[in-house]
Amino acid sequence: MFRFRTDATTIYAHYKVTKPLLGMPHMPATGVSGLDLYARDKDGKWRWVQVVRPGAQEMKLRLADGLDAGEREYAIYLPLYNGVEFLNVGVPEGKKFVGLKPRAKPVVFYGTSITHGACASRPGMVHTAILGRRFDVPVVNLGFSGNGRMDQAVGEFLTRIDAAAYVIDCLPNMNAAAVTEKCVPLVKQLRAARPDTPIILVEDRRNTDAWLKASLRKHHDDNHAALKAAYEQLVKEGVKGLSYVPGDHLYGDDSDGATDGSHASDLGFHRQADIFEPFLKAALGR
Known about the structure:
The protein is α/β, with parallel strands linked by helices. The protein contains 7 helices and 13 strands. Strands 4-3-6-1-8 form a 5-stranded antiparallel sheet, with helices on one face. A 5-stranded parallel sheet has the order 10-9-11-12-13, sandwiched between helices.
């Protein structure tokens, strides 16, 4: 995210993504490669303004125009599944433009392709971004497609971040045996380095076609049971500051919360954010 203040009624952007593939079969280019612009309204609430509809690897464009006069704070979410080689943001000559410094104490999410952002229609629609706006806190998104596995090396990196809370949401890339092996060591690694930082453990979401597939239901049941056992062991051993998010309803109960059965749609991301919200609220002491 890039934040800035301006009184301009037109905002320009010039950026280039690292890969020529701008979209994916199950995820639009607006999410994979787009810029997503938000602004604070007069009450301080973050509101959507405009999104880039990518048509080329490098684009010079008018990101937003015809805006109401007045100075306000803006935020640009960067592409979810494409790297950014460079980004320039500008306003007409004579207008105020001030880049804002990064904020301290982010909420750190460690997870899978879902945390990464698959398959949101635009970058601001991921549950991590939604929660960042709701609580008005910075977010570090460490979602690794296919590789969110509670690894010790990632844990070591997490300990370097002075986080407001850690959210561990790796089960979609794991099985029960891996959860049993890795969860307790990861939590103890974090707690040894950050004794007072809240840690939120999240169960696996259920694939939206699991209602019709016994093998998927068993996989989710086993994953949940393994995480619950790890959580209970940690609590029994006296590890403080833990909370536990059940996964059965993360996508809702109507099978409409995913794009492909596994990865969240915008609807699924909003439902996840709603379920995460009370746990994060408690962790942040709000």
